[in-house]
Amino acid sequence: MLFIIVTILTFIVMEGITWCTHKYVMHGFGWYLHEDHHQPGYPHVFEKNDAFFVVFAIPSMLLFFFGIRPELNFLFFIGLGILCYGIAYFLIHDVLIHRRFKWFDKTNNWYLKGLRKAHKVHHKHLGKEEGECFGMLFVPFKYFKAYRK
């Protein structure tokens, strides 16, 4: 039971880590890698911004490695929480919001529509300054109001 709690807490904490990384790294000294993500109609399958997936995958892989040595321990489940967040991020951000893959084109869910709206507001700024809505799963409630029944 403790391992499940560690995994869920890690998933939740990852939203805060992602928010901080997005605001202070991607829109800061890491703008070189993130800038192409803010350009409309980016023509390539991959973006330089995709390097951040690797940045988050490395700690997860290391935690899996050390989480089974000398036997299964809590580090494995921290790595699992990071992996689960990465999967959620990919499905929400790249599939649902940016539609890099056409898997969930016809969603009518108020929560997912609110996330899309918040991210659209984030992308109205083409530069690294004056950004807003840096979160991915938890965004201000005002973006959900129009879609709630």
Automatic annotation (TrEMBL):
Superkingdom of origin organism: Bacteria
Entry GO MF terms: beta-carotene 3-hydroxylase activity
InterPro entries membership: BETA-OHASE-like
Biological process according to GO: carotene metabolic process; xanthophyll biosynthetic process
Keywords associated with the record: Carotenoid biosynthesis, Membrane, Oxidoreductase, Transmembrane, Transmembrane helix
Bilayer-spanning residue ranges: 51-68, 74-92
Family the UniProt entry places it in: Belongs to the sterol desaturase family.
Name this polypeptide is given: Uncharacterized protein
